[in-house]
Amino acid sequence: MSKYFGTDGFRGEANVDLTVEHAFKIGRFLGSYFAKDGRRSSIVIGKDTRLSSYMYECALTAGITASGADAYLMHVTTTPSVSYIARSEDFDCGIMISASHNPYHDNGIKLLNCNGEKMEDNIISAIEAYLDGASPEPPLATGDSIGRAIDHSAGRNRYIGYLISLATHSYKGMRVGLDCANGSTWSIAKNVFDALGAETYVIGNSPTGTNINMDCGSTHLGALQRLVREKHLDVGFAFDVDADRCLAVDEHGEKVDGDAIIYICGKHMKEKGSLANNTVVTTVMSNFGLYKALDFCGINYEKTAVGDKYVYENMRANGHLLGGEQSGHIIFSKYATTGDGLITAIKLMQVMLDRKMSLAALREGLTVYPQVLKNVKVTDKDITMNDPDVKAACNKVTELLGDEGRILLRKSGTEPLLRVMVEAPTHEMCEQQVDYVIEAMRSKGLLITIK
Around Cβ 408, how many Cβ atoms within 10 Å? Predict the structure, then answer.
């Protein structure tokens, strides 16, 4: 685990954990790092709608231009759009200012390479060494070598055009709800769906800088569910603040999460002969019911660690075309190198219109198993994971559940916690088996508290 950067960037409370000085220095480093053989580097920047994003945009721009590079500003836009522009317009790298689903007082800096992928670990390590003062200051540009800050809102418009080009049907006659989480899609999503002919109803499209995710977006589906039911809509889509996630709501107002999206799209792609390797990629946190449904459909699957970064790495290494997380990070690698909420919505619309079926009907065949997850603080994560009695308890649960459930014991990447998760036919059985494993930790003196 890196000191500053996690799997989704450098994230923390604005001006507490992540300061303007951090942003300035990251800009300084990147502007200098990519300036090889006297060539002026160019970096594209996007931001979400939270209050502090403007501050970080200024700080990053100052650092980039001070090192002699040019900063191209897409302004308020989505993470996937920055990824698309970075790879399609030959930028040296892209930066997205966002803390995604975190509260408004947090913010983050996500770094993307020239292919629109998460930045390479060796560059992240070099940035962290510089932030800690372990490497020298990059030279300051002077005279006509000082970089420029350039408006690049045209890049956002190019991305909108790209999205529209991916649709294979007119949406005329479709009534669609969109929840923009008061985030980056507030000025994009409606334009796309209107252009494709849908009758759109939009909520979460009045950002103030402090109301992101406030009872809206993919982390709070209630408002979209009510909208779909009250307006009798065909479907609803909820994005997170930087729009790399999408969850859906069917015509009855019922949640369709990332696992269901993978099931629906994977099954459709298989039937059309377009599911490369007959395989989808999930994380270990996907519901057991998804795997049962995929088995029934004859679709193979691979499991990665939690994080869309790991999903994409697996897809890229093995040539898979569909993967994602239960939370709504869905990657269609033929069209994007990151999770893209708007592409996910467009691909779901395609399945509905191709098959002439509702989202609820398309979801049939997927039974979600009850799940209980408890976080336990322990004296030592590795010692607890490897304790013979704890391992024996996990093995006994596995044996008891057979092919009707599973147990997952995994370490938190950021806290002294273990996560104990059981999926089984009933909620009561989940509770019993989770508590059984936790009791094994308690009896060995390894448990501090249950959080």
Answer: 15
Q: Does 150 have pLDDT greater than 90?
A: yes
Q: What are 407's two structure tokens?
A: 């147990």
Q: Identify the band that residue 413 occupies on the pLDDT scale cut at 50, 70 and 90.
A: low
The pair phi, psi for residue 195, each rounded to 5°, is: -60, -30
Task: Count CB atoms within 10 A of the CB of residue 272.
Answer: 10
Please count the CA atoms within 13 angstroms of the CA of 28 that sit on its side-chain side: 18
Cα 388 to chain centroid, rounded: 36
How many CA atoms within 13 Å lie on the side-chain side of 447? 19
Alpha helix locations (H) across 140-277?
A: 153-166, 189-195, 222-231, 258-272
| Full strand arrangement of the beta sheet holding 300-304 | 300-304, 279-283, 322-324, 330-332
Residue 126, SS3?
helix
Share of the chain above pLDDT 70, in %: 99
| DSSP-assigned letter for residue 180 | -
Whether 261 and 325 have beta carbons less than 8 Å apart is answered as no
> For residue 311, what are its two tokens?
């999903």
Q: Which pTM value belongs to this model? A: 0.93
What are the catalytic residues? Answer: 100
Q: Is the pLDDT of residue 33 over 70?
A: yes
Alpha-carbon gap, residue 258 to 332, rounded angstroms:
13
Closest by CA position to 42, among listed 93, 7, 103: 93
The amino acid sitting at 140 is L
Rounded Cα distance, 263 and 58, in Å: 42
**DSSP assignment string, 199-226:** EEEEES----SS-TTTT-STT-THHHHH
The number of beta carbons lying within 10 Å of the beta carbon of residue 39 is 11
The 3-state DSSP class for residue 375 equals strand
d(CA 152, CA 168): 28
Query: Token pair of 323, please?
Result: 């993967």
Q: In this structure, are residues 51 and 84 in contact, taking their beta carbons and an 8 Å threshold? A: no
In this structure, are residues 296 and 284 in contact, taking their beta carbons and an 8 Å threshold? no
Closest Cα partner for 89 from 163, 188, 159, 161? 159
Cβ(218)–Cβ(211) under 8 Å?
no
Residues in the chain: 451
